[in-house]
Every structure is written in structure tokens, then in C-alpha cells.
Amino acid sequence: MSQMFDFAGTDVAFIDGDSVLTALVRAGIYPAGGGALCCEGDCPHCVATIDGISYVRTCQTAPHENLKVQPHPIDDYPPLPPDRGYGAPPIEYRQCDVVVIGQGESGREASDRATTSGRMVESFDANRGEEVIGIYDGPMVIARTPERIIHVDCEEIVVATGAAELQPACPGNDLVGIVTGRAALRLVAQGVGLGVTVAVGKPPNDLDCEVVEGTLVRFEGVDGRLAAVVTRTESGEERTPCDTAVLNLGIYPRDGLARMGNGLAVSVVGDAGRDATVPPCPSEGVICPCNNVDVDDLQAVWDRGFHEIELVKRATLAGTGTCQGMACMPYLRSFLADRGAALQPPFTARPVARQLTIGEMSAGEYDRPVPRTPLHGEHLALGATMDRIGGWWRPWTYGELGAEYEAVRERVSIGDVSTLGKMIVSGPDAESFLEYIYPTNISTIESGRSRYVLMLNERGYVFDDGLVSREADGTFSLTFTSGGASHAEMWMRDWGSKYDVRMLNQSMSLAAINVTGPLAKELLAKAGVVDPPPYMGHADVQVAGVPCKVFRLSFTGELSFELHHAIDRSVELWRSLLDLGGEFGIYPHGLEALQLLRLEKGHILVGIDTDFDSTPRRIQHEWACKIDKPTDFLGRPSVVRTNEIPLDRLLVGFRTERPTVDGALLYSNGEYCGYVTSAGWSPTLGHGISMAWLYHGSDGQLPGDVEIDGTTATRVPMPFYDPEGVKARA
Amino acid sequence: MLEVLAVTRVVAAPDSLDRATFPSGSIVLRTAPDDAMVIGGGTVQVDDLHAIVREDAGWSGVWVNRAPSEAYLQASCSWPRPSVRPAFAQGAIAHLPVKLWLTEERTLFVFPTALTADFVERTPQEWSA
Amino acid sequence: MSIRITCEHCGTRPLEEYVYGEVLDVPATIADPAERNLDRAFNHTNPEGPVPEAWFHLYGCRRWITIVRDTATDRIVD
Fold first, then answer.
1. Which of C27, C6, C26 is closest to C17 using CA atoms?
2. How confident is the model at residue C73 (pLDDT cuts 50, 70, 90)?
3. Which one, A124, A357, A701, C21, has least CB within 10 Å?
4. Distance separating the N- and C-terminal Cα atoms of chain C
5. Is the pLDDT of residue C14 over 50?
6. For residue A86, is pLDDT > 70?
7. What is the pLDDT, as a whole number, of residue A2?
8. What is the ipTM of this complex?
9. pLDDT tops 50 at residue A376
10. How confident is the model at residue C1 (pLDDT cuts 50, 70, 90)?
């Protein structure tokens, strides 16, 4: 019993030695509906969707049972993979002296030569399932196999990719029944019957066929299938009926990778380096089968003044498709030479040379590690959904968003904020350094007190925020946002180099648990904290026997204490708090709840609610930017300057009666006027709340009420919840 | 055996750090001119009034015999290790930020505890057993 | 991966260990520190050839280093 795979619902039999393509042609199927097949990976006529992945060359795919092949739709894009199951493959890193691309005769010789002279060689060959997708600076070669992406650092690259047979450029070249000479041999070798076969040009040895005289004029067909070849001879046009036309129009070097290596240590051997002689200029017909560009299209862009091959490529998209110019390049060049522009070199070749899946594009994405807080296991045990957020694994929700929110607003909750950036700054210049870094007064922060700070860059734009606290010993403790901590450290070390300061990054050494809710003080009292610090104060105290630095501040809007402690005591502290909080109805909260809680308070998330060019004025944070403070600070000249420019947009709050979403657009009288940065539904207030960028109208005025997602949004002041801040200061 | 290390971090003016005395038997990794990571506990004496000296619970490590450690590094570390031992080196190993303390007999791999899961995943099973 | 940068504290390491900082191209003729900051923020010459650059050695000492990179060839000159 023969083996079968599925093509669009039909069983297709295959035998040993078949590619998917040879099996299809045996069954009378051209996967792309026609075109001159090459069977060597050069043309775009065999691509199909295989097992959900599109643009796969069926000629280079081995069939197996259960394989599902779908033709690409004729006038539409092929489908995306059906689910997210196509994960990033691993990257394998290799190093060698010489990479040889292609293992035909000249490639094998090059490999042998290099090996004999004692050099370490890596070789790749598309026929072995190793497709080189690009040559990069370094030099480095990137190849893909079905299992992985391979990066090879090397000294030298040898391109031995051979040459491809020319595609026909004439009317009818999209019919079923046209093959190159090499393709014909492969098909015949697999026992595929070609019917009445004629050859245009010299046929391969041993191929039994009639040779037609003259030069190719067009192919004629019936119902999409080849019926005859028309050639021109001295005596006029000659029509030769046939089932299959075998072409030998000449060969053209496969030099894409060689051209990619321009300026690098790349040499070319064998047919890949042969002279790229161009064929005669075609008079009509499609020259770019990938994007269906014909001679008339070329003429049209020529007439519009595009005479350089790079421009013609961009104007027509010829050369930007599946085959990356393998089919059209010779004809683009001969057309332009014929019209009077000199024979131009091929257009620039750039990676990638082959279609990649989104998964392959993101190969190595997970090489960069994602740190976990010491409470990772606790979150999992509580059923949390973890996600990568701000460069860390963090609990998004424990599955009960409502309960998480309610615990914070009505009772008490704990949240893992270990990911916060944390740093100690000491030194004779510590205070003057921080005065320069922050747009807030630092000298007036008393020992044991903290202050909210923005971080501005030289342009006066906000790039992070956090807290500055003065310690009893004269040092300062800083916090940064979780996602911004690494950048903030770089920032501090850069500007700090001009000051006599010492800095210690403690981001991964200290954990932090936020205890928040109206009963937070009661919970801390049970944990042995009888005299917690006042609002915006901090103190070193033991919490349930664990040494902590307790900061009192509020992001959720409720009474909150942030307990910073050594990460090796974190699990113990977390469990104690959950245990002690049982009688208060404690429930932990994840980031989803936290985002809603802080939105109700109008607290910004830098990088989400702010843009790269958010000035303190634009985000209504001028209260945190003391422009008149006695000392200069980073970004001050820019803030002074931009403050003189009329305000163009403002980060504001909106109330909606229906829920809206992040990124929703704002309209005022039909005019676009901004977008939502954070949206949520406030259970406490019973209406939708949004933070949004609102642009000034052409009249220079800020619109009042706007429309978001077809619903009226009323501009309201922030915070939405507890505007007096009574709860946080309770 | 993979373990959380007893680490003291000392950030001080480089010349003060040069003169500092560290507990006998401790391993001192000079991670930067103004930063020393002291493994093993004990009191550090440094003559910089503004030095930051802190216990640091954020680091884990594993001792590996020389031969298997060198075999692993050969495959997972793209930069050359110091040719003489004992020596300190730091950089990407299996794409993780790792600090190495290389002695004649063994190699200590040091990494942030927050990256333990990644380290375990990318190193031989028996190291974390 | 393929570009290797030498950190004065740690040695020669692959690119993945570093974070790019900036071109150090504020002209010496600008003396005022505030003006230097503004020039650093707003004026970029995007030169072709060897230029001094700041890189942060994230996977090693976590300090800034200065190198000279030829922007035309990506070779580290110094």
C-alpha cells in the first residue's frame, strides 16, 4: 500500500525519493497553479502552506504521512499559523575558520581545501535541509534547519551556491506543464510521466523529447494547461503542440548570498561566481512571477523616470517576493540595458534570503534570562497566572481579579513588588549628585523620610519615576520602576562618574512586599510592628521576625507599607503575612488588579502612560518638577525652554459609561484628538475610567468631552478615586 | 551543590578597596574597581568613610570540579577563560551573567539567585541535584 | 554576537554582554556643562569612521566603558 499525504483534502500518493512537489506533479497538481518549475528552490512556483506554515518550498520538503499541504490562495495572502504553537527555535552558536555555503562539486572542493590546510570548516547545503538565510557583519553566517537557527562566527566565507536555470519571460509562462531541464530530470527520475515533451534549447542528456527550433515567443494553453510552444524561426512563427515544455534558456548565478557579503571576507567559487550574462530583453509577459510584474509594468515605471534598478525594484516590487530576484533579476537588468541605461549590477542583497516563520524570527528571544522573584513558587502555589512583565516573571492574577481588588480596597492585601529597582547611594557628593539627577529638592528630605521623584533626561522628558529616601547614616536609598531599573542604573553610573559617590544596586538582592488596604496597620501590628512609619516615612523594623526596611507610601490609593527585605527571607515573610492576615480576610493581588487600583488613583506608569517625549507639564506632574529649586538639575534647561512653547497635549482623565480599552482613539467633533493609554472599569465608582493623551485642537484649546469607541467620554480630574488622598494618609 | 552564598558587598573608593583587609578564608571577587564581592562572611575593614558594606543575599553558586567545569565552559562560554588559576572572571555563560572563581581543583559559578531557574535549565542536571 | 568588545575591567567579551550607550561626539570647543548636555542630547553628527562610544558592560562589571568603533566596518579600533 502506498503512502499518502493530504493536498487540500485529496490524498496524494508518494514513493521513496519523492519531494512533496514530485509527488504532486505525478498526481497532475502544480501547487501554485502553474509556472516553470525548477525543483531546486529557485523559483516561487512550488510554494504552499505545509502543516500551517506558508511559503514552504514543496520541492525541498520530504513528504510523510499526515502531512497537510494547502495551496496559497490565488488573490490573497496565505494564512498565518493557526495558533501560537510555532515557538522560537533555539539558536546554536558555532565558531570556525571557514564557512562553505553549498556542497556541490565546487563547495566540496572548497571544504576539502580548507580542511586540508588545517582550518576548521562548517558547511551548509540546502539539499541537506540547511538553508543559509543571511551573511552578516562579523562575518557571521545564519542558517536554519527544521530544528534550530545556527549562528556561525567565522573568519571567512566561501559561497558555492551554484547557478539556477533561467525562468521564461513570455506570455503563457504561468501555465501548467513548463519545467526547467534539471526539473525534468528530477521528475523523470521519480517516474513522473511528462507526456508529449518538447525542449526549448538544448535538452539535458538522456531526456527523450523533441527539440523545437527558434527562440521562444509564447506558451499557449487550454484551461491553464500547456497546449503548445510557439517559437520564432527564420521562416516565421512555429507552433509545436505538447504536454510538457522543457526549458534550457541558460543559467544565471545564484549570487544572492555572495552579494550580501559585500565588503566582508567572502569568496565565490563555482557557478555562483560565473559571469552573470543577461538574456535578451523580453518584449512581453510576466518577468516577476512572485509579484506578477510584467514588461508593461516595467515600461510604465521607466516612463515615469525610474531608470535605476534599485528604484525599479521599489516601484514595481519586482525582486521583493518569495524568490528574492532569482526569477526577475536577469530580465530587470536586460530590460534596463535595452532601454538605454547601462547594464546595471544587481540590486543590493540583504538578509534574509528565505521566508522565515515568526517563530524563527524570534529565535534566541529567550536566551536573555527572565529573573524570578523569591516568591515565584508562592505565586504558582496560589494558582497565579505568571507572565513576563518589565523583564521579570510576575503574577498577573491569582484568578480572582474581583477578590484581589476588593481585598485592597476593603480589607488588606499583599503584593510582590520585589522587581522594583533599588539602589544605595553614599559618598561626600551623594546629596549634590541626587540634587542634579532629580528635579525635586533632595536636601530638604529629612532622615527617615521619602519623596516621590521623576527622572528627566537632558531633553526634559520623563523616563522613570521612583522614590528617594534619606537614611539615618547619611546615605540614600532609591527606587526605580521594575522595567526601568537597569536603564536607571546605567543612568546613575553615567552621571555619577562626575561625583564622589558610591553606588550599590540591590535590585536582585532585596525583595519587597507591599502590604496595602484599610487594615494594613492592623496586620502589621499583628506582625509585631507597633509603631509603623508615618506617610512618606520609612524605618528599619522587624516584621514577623524578618528584618525589613518599611516604607510607607501608596500606589494603590490605600494605606500601604512596602516591606523591603533580604530575598532569602521573603517566602517566610509572605507566608507569615498571609497567615496573620487570615482573620482580616487577606488576599494577594497581582499586577492586573494593581494596574486598575493605581489607575483609579491616576498614578502614571512610566512607559505606558508616558511617551518618549513626555515633559512634566504634559503629564501634569509639574508639582514634581521644582523648576525654581536652588540647584541646577538634569533636564532643567530643556524644561525651561519647552515650557515657553504653547502646550500641545496633556495626559488627562476621562469617565465613560461603557468600558473602553487601552489604545482606543479619541475624537472631538469627528476629529482625531488623542488616544487612551490606560483604561479600566472601576468597581468602586461604577463607571469606566481612562487615562489618555488629549491633543489641543486647531483653535489651541483642549477639547472637553470627547468620543471614545463611539461613547461619550467626560473629561474629569484625576485621581478618580479618593481625590483628597485621605485613605493613603489614614 | 547549588547554594545561596553568604556574600558581603563592599563598594568603596578603588584605592581604599585595594588596601582593604578581608576575612581570612573568604573569596574576594573584584567585580569592578570600586566593588568587591566577598564570599564566606566575616568582617571587612576598609578605610573609606563612605564605603557601602552590605550583606547581600542575592547570589547563588555551585562548585564544580575542574574537568567537568572546563568541558562545560568550552561549549557554553564564547570568551577565553584566564589561563592561570586561581583567577576571577565574569561574563556571559550560556547567555547568563555569571562570575567564575577558578581554582586549581574546582570552579565556582556565581549568579544572581533570581536567575537560578535559568541557570539550572542551562547547566548539567547533576550540578543542581 | 560577532562583534567583540574589550572591557578594561573584564576582558574581551561578545556583544550580547553590552548595552550601547552613545557616540561621544560633543565638541571640545563647548565648555559650558549645560551646553555640553544640550549638545549631547540634540546634536548628533552620525560620523562614518572611527568614533568614540560609550558602552555599558551589563553582564560583567556593570560599568561604562569607552571604545573606538569604526562605524563603516564595525571593527573596534581601540
1. C6
2. confident
3. A701
4. 19
5. yes
6. no
7. 79
8. 0.97
9. yes
10. very low
Q: Please state which architecture CATH assigns to domain A167-250.
A: 3-Layer(bba) Sandwich (3.50)
Q: Which chains touch B (3 or more CB pairs under 8 A)?
A: A, C
Asked if A170 contacts A284 with a C-beta cutoff of 8 angstroms, the reply is yes
The Cα A471–Cα B117 span in angstroms is: 34
What superfamily would CATH give domain C4-70? Folate-binding superfamily (3.30.2270.10)
Q: How many whole angstroms separate alpha carbon A490 and alpha carbon B101?
A: 26
Query: C64 to chain A: nearest residue by CA?
Result: A494
SS3 A620: coil
CB nearest A493 (choices: C3, C38, C63): C63
B13 contacts A374? CB cut-off 8 A: no
Average pLDDT over residues A143-161: 92
Find the Cα–Cα–Cα–Cα dihedral A30, A33, A37, A42, rounded to 10°: -120
What contacts A449, CB < 8 A, 6 or more positions away?
Answer: A469, A470, A536, A537, A538
Give the residue numbers in A contacting B (CB under 8 Å), as ranges: 93, 95, 367-374, 376, 392, 424, 426-428, 430, 475, 500-504, 506, 508-510, 566-569
Residue A219 identity: F
Q: Which of A190, A330, A191, A162 is nearest to A253 (CA)?
A: A162
Residue A369: closest C-alpha in chain C: C59
For residues A707 and A137, the model is more confident at A707
Domain boundaries, chain C: 4-70
Which of A261-270, A345-354, A357-366, A485-494 has the lowest average pLDDT? A357-366
Tell me the backbone φ, ψ of residue A579, rounded to 5 degrees. -65, -50
Minimal C-alpha gap between C43 and chain B (Å)? 32
CATH code of the domain made up of A278-345: 1.10.10.1100
> Distance, in angstroms, between C76 CA and closest chain B CA?
16
